[in-house]
Write a structure and sequence with these properties.
By secondary structure, the chain is of the alpha/beta class. The chain is built from 13 helices and 16 strands. The strands form 3 sheets. A 9-stranded mixed sheet has the order 10-9-8-11-13-15-16-14-12, sandwiched between helices. Strands 3-2-1-4-5 form a 5-stranded parallel sheet, sandwiched between helices.
């Protein structure tokens, strides 16, 4: 009988689509803006990959939305940890109000249970809490549900997290490796500053194909290429076209080329070379592009290759469908492409049907008159 621990951070990722760039300290505000919880759904997606082990698997998990809800939905044999009292977030009659202490307590109890593996759903803050609770004393696999995910302790998608957990429990993967737990100051992040800190390491199954890499930043050598690509985007802008400019130092050059103030870590909307709205939410974007010719100007996350689903959840599946695949404009310097080491770019919109539709080869702008064709796959 395999013993698997499951911990879910129910509020992870709430701040993404509504433009809050994180969830720490802003759960009530995110719900007020119409944020939709996604941790439970993504946990179920991961757990489905473990169904072949159902007859030989015992899952040990905290109550309610911290794990029990997702586990129970799929009919697994499970046992609930007595580690938290039922509370709900103000403004929601269903969403569990959990704290860092709940996560710490649950992780420590799972350590005592001697589970073979801990499968957890959250973002960098959740990984940081687990490091504080268990260090490297238990192998873990992260299900990506947060807004920002810099730590390479997460699988590339919920499905890959479940696949990795299944293979590890079956001992098809036996080697472990230490990976970094990174987190940023979300208050500074919301002001456009990225202050990343290394907190420690967690042990993960050693299977690079299923795990996401560490996020890498742009270098000074990239700046001239970024400016050249931005000038191309500006010169090719269509009259009355609505341009949704995604976050990142590469795409921010488009705003700078227009002599407009860029929201480095948010989404800006431009039409006729004028700023329509800065730091837009999903709702704002949908309103701005409704019934209009619209374009999505994006860049992959350095070192990871995500185009959608990491740090730009404002550009949601609904936004992408409304704009259309043919209006996705990808910017990336040759240095950023080379950093992927031949790996494809990825999409993880939360809509598996759209992710499948988005697969294929895209023209990626690498200079003013330079482009390459590059493969994009669902994560």
């Amino acid at each position: 009988m395999h013993k698997l621990g499951v911990i879910v951070n129910p509020v992870a990722g709430l701040g993404g689509a509504v433009g809050l760039k994180g969830t720490d300290g802003v759960v009530k505000e995110a719900l007020k803006r119409g944020a939709v919880p996604r941790s439970a759904l993504r946990t179920v997606q991961a757990l489905k990959k473990l169904e072949p082990l159902k007859d030989d698997l015992l899952i040990i998990t905290p109550p309610d939305e911290m794990g029990e809800t997702a586990v129970k939905e799929l009919g697994f044999d499970y046992r609930v940890l007595a580690c938290s009292e039922k509370k709900t977030v103000a403004g929601s009659d269903r969403l569990a109000a959990t704290s860092r202490e709940d996560t710490l307590k649950a992780a420590r109890k799972l350590l005592e249970e001697e589970v073979s593996l801990l499968l957890f759903a959250g973002g960098d803050g959740t990984a940081r809490d687990l490091y504080a609770a268990i260090g490297e004393r238990m192998p873990v696999v992260g299900i990506p549900t947060g807004v920002k995910i810099h730590s390479p302790v997460y699988a590339v998608s919920p499905e890959k997290a479940g696949e990795l957990a299944r293979r590890f429990l079956r001992r098809e993967i036996v080697q472990l490796k230490s990976e970094e737990v990174l987190d940023i100051d979300e208050e500074a992040y919301r002001r456009g500053k990225v202050n990343t800190r290394l907190y420690g390491y967690l042990k993960v199954p050693d299977e690079a194909r299923l795990m996401q890499g560490r996020k890498s930043g742009s270098t000074l050598a990239d700046e001239s290429a970024q400016r050249a690509i931005a000038l191309r985007v500006v010169d090719e802008m269509e009259p009355d076209g609505v341009y949704v400019i995604g976050p990142g130092s590469t795409t921010s050059q488009v705003l700078l080329a227009l002599d407009l103030q860029a929201t480095l870590l948010g989404v800006d909307i431009v039409c006729n070379r004028q700023l329509v709205l800065a730091d837009a939410s999903e709702k704002d974007i949908l309103q701005a592009i409704d019934g209009k010719e619209s374009y999505l100007v994006i860049t992959p996350i350095g070192g990871q290759g995500y185009l959608f689903g990491r740090g730009n959840q404002q550009i949601s599946s609904r936004v992408i469908r409304q704009a259309g695949r043919e209006h996705i404009q990808v910017m990336a310097s040759i240095a950023k492409i080379q950093a992927l080491q031949g790996r494809p770019m990825m999409v993880d919109t939360g809509d598996p049907y759209l992710d499948k539709e988005l697969e294929g080869y895209y023209k990626v702008m690498t200079g003013y008159r330079e482009s390459i064709m590059y493969r994009i796959v669902r994560s």
